């Protein structure tokens, strides 16, 4: 039975009247909106067409060779994600559903170190007066960067002071390359370009300088929270599904949310909310026909493990959901005003009309769904006005261009080093020198991230010969080590990340293998290439993104929706919170001041 939720103490604001809310899409943004709306006392139904939660940020199980030559299943993320400490909305939400970011992530100071030991590494100041001064750790990291000349350091320090004097803003038509004019070629190649492509997934000549500065400001000048500096790298130690989706869906189920996994939405139908019971637009349960379409699954995602398609039988709410309508009908609009709308969601299973619909899919499937919106029950003028609004939103969404991200999973062929011990990267994440022949920007060692090594197995730091557990003390890591019951199983898996990926799968695999040999001195065997062709929108200067508000009772959220951040998990979560704030009649800012 679908039980009515009670407003949570962490709700954005208790609504005047609980709303029946349909959320289309069960990715990070959709689930974030579901949690916030449930906390606010709304009655939430989530429709997800695929047979897994999480959208693009999910875990896939693929075959992997072991040391004995056998093949076994291995859980791999469909893309290696990097979060930073400034992602406060994401981490706050994780804590509220019972997740522990301290245990789920390996926290590291911001590091852009290469395999030869050169590059930038910020100090790990956790306590004391130095940790409380915003930007000081960045200045220290610049001053002590390995391999940089003093001309490089002074060039970046001068640019940083200039950006700070500008209030970390710039004209909207500036690119990152224009913003960084005057920096040395080494700084552009080893600092600006890797940072830009990892944050915006857009190359520096094409990337928005305004958005880049916002990311820099929040990561370098923001406050510490829960002992974590905003610039800290937060690297997942668990599969993405375990990090958020499992915790969120369990939390939602316990509070009566209706979660319909494997149930696609074929169409939306606008209804006049002021119509009386006799009007066909005021009640009823439309079922629609099952066409197998997937409004929130991206057919262009080129991954080796496909998401489940179609609309299966979800966990329906049943007839009990019909009693959850607001206790009073909306007042009739003033003459000439836009009429209040309710919405019927057509799926394979019947459901009563909803007071609000929140589209939490990607931009392209959201636009396809909106173009098929049914308006036949509305008056002609109201239908025409609604179609005009939907058309404008769709045109903005369809104008977005996209960049691909590839994750190349490879197994180290040489298990032992020349010293006879198991091979490890010097750090769990290393920067790579990206060229036309060497396309990857970063490499991650899965065994350091996902396993729970003991002190005997932890890789020594080349500079100090201490173990990583000594070099990088982490409260979450300590809890993980204490809780580990099974021995550390080595997979010898490396994840090479190629942002703004342009190569085909075969060429990319060959190029990454050559890059591993050239930069890391490793022979690797590529096992899987996972490419999401529409991973992020191109974050270009002056880009106009789709609005949060689409029409009365119809909103959108997701990393593509207008906001200060590029296409990131934090951007997706913040737009979800803003949408629920709008649902509650609050201004709910996308970002904290």
Shape: globular
Enter the CATH topology name of the domain at 1-55 and 87-95 and 237-273 and 310-316 and 341-401 and 556-593: FAD/NAD(P)-binding domain
The share of residues in helices is 25-40%
Name of the CATH class of the domain at 1-55 and 87-95 and 237-273 and 310-316 and 341-401 and 556-593: Alpha Beta
Poorly predicted regions: 1-15, 277-336, 452-488, 588-593
Strand content: 15-25%
Structural class estimated from helices and strands: alpha+beta
Radius of gyration: 25 Å
CATH superfamily of the domain at 1-55 and 87-95 and 237-273 and 310-316 and 341-401 and 556-593: FAD/NAD(P)-binding domain
Number of strands: 21
**If you average the pLDDT, what whole number results?**
80
Short description:
The protein contains 16 helices and 21 strands.
Describe the overall structure:
The protein has 593 residues and is of the alpha+beta class. Among the domains are: 1-55 and 87-95 and 237-273 and 310-316 and 341-401 and 556-593, FAD/NAD(P)-binding domain (3-Layer(bba) Sandwich); 125-227. The protein contains 16 helices and 21 strands. The chain has helices at residues 28-39, 88-96, 101-104, 136-143, 150-165, 176-179, 185-200, 209-220, 240-254, 363-371, 380-398, 446-450, 468-471, 475-483, 505-520, 569-583; strands at 20-24, 43-48, 59-65, 71-77, 83-84, 105-108, 111-113, 119-121, 233-236, 258-261, 267-272, 301-302, 341-346, 356-359, 402-412, 429-431, 442-445, 493-499, 524-537, 549-551, 554-556. The chain has a 6-stranded mixed sheet with strand order 10-2-1-14-21-20. A 6-stranded antiparallel sheet has the order 12-19-15-18-17-16. Strands 5-9-6 form a 3-stranded antiparallel sheet.
């Amino acid at each position: 039975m679908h039980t009515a939720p009670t407003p949570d103490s962490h709700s954005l604001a208790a609504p005047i009247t609980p709303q029946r809310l349909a959320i289309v899409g069960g990715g990070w943004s959709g689930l974030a909106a579901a949690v916030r709306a449930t906390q606010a006392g709304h009655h939430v139904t989530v429709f997800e067409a695929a047979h897994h939660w999480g959208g693009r940020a999910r875990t896939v199980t693929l075959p992997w060779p072991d040391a004995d030559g056998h093949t076994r299943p291995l859980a791999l993320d469909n893309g290696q994600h990097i979060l930073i400490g400034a992602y406060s909305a994401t981490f706050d939400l994780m804590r509220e559903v019972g997740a522990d970011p301290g245990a789920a992530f390996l926290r590291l100071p911001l590091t852009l170190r290469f395999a030869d030991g050169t590059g930038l590494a910020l100090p790990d100041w956790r306590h004391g007066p130095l940790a409380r001064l915003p930007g000081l750790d960045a200045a220290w990291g610049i001053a002590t960067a390995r391999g940089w000349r003093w001309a490089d350091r002074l060039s970046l320090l001068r640019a940083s002071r200039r950006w700070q004097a500008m209030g970390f803003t710039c004209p909207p038509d500036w690119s990152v390359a224009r913003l960084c004019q005057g920096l040395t070629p080494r700084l552009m190649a080893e600092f600006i370009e890797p940072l830009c492509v990892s944050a915006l997934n857009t190359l520096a000549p094409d990337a928005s300088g305004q958005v880049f500065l916002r990311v820099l400001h929040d990561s370098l000048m923001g406050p510490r929270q829960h002992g974590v500096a905003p610039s800290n790298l937060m690297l997942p130690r668990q599969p993405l599904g375990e990090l958020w989706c499992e915790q969120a869906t369990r939390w939602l189920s316990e509070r009566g949310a209706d979660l319909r996994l494997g149930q696609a939405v074929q169409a939306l139908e606008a209804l006049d909310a002021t119509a009386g019971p006799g009007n066909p637009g005021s009640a009823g349960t439309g079922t629609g026909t099952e066409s197998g379409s997937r409004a929130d699954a991206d057919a262009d995602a080129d991954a080796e493990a496909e998401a489940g398609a179609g609309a299966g039988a979800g966990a329906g709410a049943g007839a009990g959901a019909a009693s959850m309508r607001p206790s009073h009908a909306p007042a009739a609009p003033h003459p000439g005003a836009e009429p209040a709308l309710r919405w019927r969601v057509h799926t394979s299973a019947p459901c009563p009309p909803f007071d609000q619909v929140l589209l939490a899919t990607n931009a392209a499937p959201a636009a396809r769904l909106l173009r098929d919106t049914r308006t036949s029950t509305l008056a002609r003028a109201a239908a025409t006005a609604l179609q005009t609004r939907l058309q404008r939103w769709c045109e903005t969404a369809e104008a977005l261009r996209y960049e691909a991200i590839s994750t190349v999973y490879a197994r180290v062929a040489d298990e032992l080093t020349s010293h006879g011990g198991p091979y490890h990267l010097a750090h769990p994440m290393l920067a790579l020198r990206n060229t036309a022949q060497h396309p990857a920007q970063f490499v991650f060692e899965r065994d350091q991230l996902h396993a729970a090594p003991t002190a005997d197995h932890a890789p020594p730091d080349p500079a100090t010969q201490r173990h990583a557990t000594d070099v990088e003390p982490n409260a979450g890591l300590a809890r993980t080590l204490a809780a580990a019951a099974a021995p550390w199983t080595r997979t010898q898996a490396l994840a090479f990340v190629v942002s703004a990926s342009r190569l085909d799968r075969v060429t990319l695999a060959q190029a990454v293998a050559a890059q591993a040999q050239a930069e890391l001195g490793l022979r690797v065997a590529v096992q899987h290439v996972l490419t999401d062709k529409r991973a992020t929108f191109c974050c270009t200067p002056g880009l106009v993104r789709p609005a949060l508000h689409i029409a009365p009772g119809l909103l959108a959220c997701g990393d593509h929706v207008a906001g200060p951040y590029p296409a990131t998990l934090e951007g997706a979560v913040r737009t979800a919170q803003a949408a629920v704030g709008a649902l509650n009649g609050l201004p709910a800012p996308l970002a904290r001041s």
